[in-house]
Amino acid sequence: MAAFVNWLKDRGGYVNPKINLFNKTGSSGDRGVYAEQDIAEGEQLLLVPVPSTLHLDVEDITKPGATVPATCTAAVSQFLQAQQPPFSPFIATTVMLMAESAKGEASPFAPYFATLPEASDCLLNWSEQERQLLAGTSLESSGRSIQDIYEADIAPKLAAAPQGMFPVGSISFEAFRRAADMVQTRAFHMKADNWLTGASQEATDELYLIPAIDMLNHSSRPQLRNTSLALMRSEAEVTLGDGSKRRFKDFFSMKAERDIPAGTQVLHTYGDLSDAQLLQTYGFIDTPPALPGAAAAAAGKGSKAAKSKSAAAAAAAAAAAAEAAGNPHNYVVLPLAMLLDAASKVAAATHLWPAKKAKKLLAAKLSLLASSGLLQQQQPQESQLLITAAAPLPDELLTIVQVLLMTEGEFKQLQQAEQEQQQQQQQQQQGAQQQQQQRLDLGRDLLQGEFGELVATVLLQVAGDCLKRLPGNAAAAAAAMAAAAAGSRPWMAAAVALGEALLLQQLKREGLMLMLAAQQGGDDDDDDSDDEDDEDELSDDDEDDDSGLDGSEEEAAEPPAKKAKAGKQHSSKQHHKAAAAAAAGTEAGKHHKHSSHSKHKHEHKHKHGDKKKAAGAAEKKKKKDSRPHYGAMTGPSEEDVWQSDDSENVVGYSESENEPASDAPAAAAAAAAAAAGKKRGSSSSGKRQRHPADASGKHTYEVGAAGAVREVHGHMLGPDEADLIESDDSDKVGYVDEEEQPAAAAAADGGSKAAGSGGRGKRSSRGGAAAAAAGGSKRPKKGLGFKG
Ligand SMILES: C[S@@+](CC[C@H](N)C(=O)[O-])C[C@H]1O[C@@H](n2cnc3c(N)ncnc32)[C@H](O)[C@@H]1O
After folding, report:
1. pTM to 2 decimals?
2. Could you tell me the pLDDT band of residue 613, with boundaries at 50, 70 and 90?
3. Which of 3, 485, 525, 784 is at a distance of 20 to 30 A from 692, taking alpha carbons?
4. Alpha-carbon separation of residue 597 from 393, 602, 680, 688 (angstroms)
5. Whose C-alpha lies nearest to ligand 1, atom 20?
6. How far is the C-alpha of 641 from the C-alpha of 634, rounded, in Å?
7. How far apart are CA 259 and CA 142, in angstroms?
């Protein structure tokens, strides 16, 4: 410890003497940083000069002739630059670390390497047998093992490395895996941005291994986190823990974000990550779902406390209940294919349209859903939807199911309305700098009577199908968790399965509630003759539509079931009526509208209104809680990191998007950024989060003394087979896309780095990057992460 701290000091760093970086007295017995004396809010905890980090600039490894980065020898740099296609930053950093650490005491980083643990529990280190424990969860393995990848793709390249880059005998799978493990569990991701314009460069994540700061553990609980982190590029005077002042330049700065009493763990956040993401990337879970009995007890206590009207008791009970519910960032990936399967079964069973029309109608629906922002643009059928605790039945999912179940006539009306809407929008937005895609949002007004029942049936079917993928139901997962030693790999695997099972049960409950509401709402249908009229309107529509569906098909589209069953016809008609009205923009259809990230989004006259409000409140809270964090890199699919730039296509997530933290430092950062005339990069884009992992990765961090804003990201970085290995080519992975370079590329502030950042273009997609956004066409059905 002392040798390491001295090393850092000698290199111009600072470690507040009130903290112990290597405390082992944490409840888990693992290492953690602890306060040994009281620390005041705002106090400087750590300062690490950038040259003391292990870091590769993306350009340095992709552009032949680029200057050799300070922490990369010429041999390593040239080797990396010679790779075609280039290595991904993950692999490049791993190779650099492998080469540097192999030098042993000869490396200037030797004191840092001495602080690194031997191994973590992240999935890179799980055996095939252990991986089986995750079958059916989002972490199910479906790819090559890390060893296969290494042997086939990495080892041959390392064997061709220039002499002297690796000491003799230092190249092995074990050495590679250990380096990859360290990069996976400890590296920080930063989004490089254009320092002049503030525009975020989506293509340019950079990885940093930051000595000392990488000793901090993560907490999923905002109330336990007590630090903030910033990268300061400009020179700044810093007040140290003892009140003295020193000037620093180009450094990472960690401060106490609140008072930290002696004996408290100093914690940061790696991002708003699900259990699966935490396990995959870091090898731990810190808010496991409580076993069902405990959850019920907590809920019971909560209601009693609420009745007792004691604010403190109620707050404590609410906290206990929240804890029992587990990680609020958990999510389940729902492949659209499963939804299509369930919808087509329901449609066939109820004869919603003749079988011969099914294919064409479906294609038209998928196309509309894609153009309306609900599915990915390319290969919409490969979209994946997210079910989260905050939104177990997201509006987007509900709209998709409704569209899928519309009869041909209904759909045509909608299609027409959509086209008009989009045209209008285009006209309005012409010349506007940033076009906002409007999402179709059908709300819940149509979900009464038979149509509501059909929608509910599809949701129940899908939830059931997803649950069947898990090794057992929630009870089985809970039993497996109870039987395993807390913190062990079987325990963590069971916790992930339980968390996902609980979410699916929530979806199921939503389906049941929808069913009940539909059955109640279906009875108060109104005037038959009106319905008849509307029905007529729908069936005789349109001579010249471009729906892709011809007129004869429309006639045949009249659901035979409706014709046959006069009694049931009622509610279906009501649905037709509302759809038609909405499509035509009439009064009756005014709740059947578009979502445009606007305040009017949730305008539902509906029994679920309160529930939705509650979900909205939860979402707001989530936003508030998601403070700037420094995530050591994380993650499931490397695609998430490099490719999924089309965040619009994520379904089932909120538009909470990248808000600066509500806390004072971030607000100050925002103000300073504004004062410096700089935008907050992608944080201001107004895009939706594409993925909970991304939620973690989109926090703006800091403002340098001169207002240089950069973002620090904690990204999922989960080698997805080929992606783990290499980055294909620049236009797929998103390194440099010369054509798309912003004009103001050669930014000045921050010196060469700023210019470098500014020079990078926006990434383009890999075989459907849009797909990746919605969960990813590349991402296997259930797999989110390293597939080895
Ligand atoms: C960036 S390092 C943090 C420092 C680490 N504890 C050490 O001793 O080197 C990340 C690793 O710390 C551990 N870790 C971080 N937060 C944790 C938590 N809340 N619970 C358990 N382990 C945690 C995991 O092993 C993870 O892979």
Report:
1. 0.68
2. very low
3. 485
4. 18, 10, 19, 9
5. 286
6. 10
7. 46
Domains, the chain, with CATH or none: 1-282 (3.90.1410.10), 322-425+439-521 (3.90.1420.10)
| Ligand 1 centroid, distance to 256 Cα (angstroms) | 19
Atom of ligand 1 nearest to the CA of 22: 8
Q: What residue type is assigned to position 340 of the chain?
A: L
Cβ neighbours of residue 213 under 8 Å, at least 6 residues apart? Answer: 46, 48, 188, 229, 252, 254, 630
Q: Please list the residues that pair with 54 across neighbouring strands.
A: 209
Closest to 318 (Cα-Cα) out of 226, 218, 223, 219: 223
User: Do the beta carbons of residue 405 and residue 343 sit within 8 Å?
Assistant: yes
User: How far is Cα 200 from Cα 682, in angstroms, rounded to an integer?
Assistant: 5
Q: Is the CB of 193 under 6 A from ligand 1?
A: no
Token pair listed for 514 = 């929808």
Confidence band of 661 (pLDDT split at 50, 70, 90):
very low
Reported ipTM: 1.00
Calpha distance 554→406 (Å, rounded): 12
- Distance CA(721)–CA(630), nearest Å, equals 26
Beta-bridge partners for 703: 709
User: How far does the centroid of ligand 1 lie from the alpha carbon of residue 704, in Å?
Assistant: 28
SS3 for 642?
Answer: helix
> CA 378 to CA 776: how far, in whole Å?
11
The residue written with tokens 């004072």 in the block is: 664
Summarize pLDDT for 302-357 with one digit per residue, the tens: 455 545 556 777 666 665 665 566 788 899 989 999 999 999 999 999 999 888 98
Contact 276, 496 (CB under 8 A): yes
Name which of 518, 505, 527, 525 is nearest 606 in CA terms.
518
Cα(650) to ligand 1 centroid in Å equals 30
C-alpha–C-alpha distance, residues 48 and 231, integer Å: 9
Q: Best substitution site from 217, 327, 716 to test ligand 1's pocket, by max atoms within 8 Å of Cβ? A: 217
CA distance 301 to 295: 10
Q: What is the mean pLDDT of residues 107-112?
A: 95
User: Which of the pair, 155 or 81, is modelled with greater confidence?
Assistant: 155
Tell me if 28 CB under 6 Å of ligand 1: yes
Mean pLDDT of 619-638: 31
- For residue 30 and ligand 1, the question of a CB distance below 6 A is answered with yes
* Phi, psi dihedral angles at 301 (to 5 degrees): -60, -40
Count CB-CB contacts under 10 A for residue 611: 13
Residue recorded with tokens 């989109």? 698
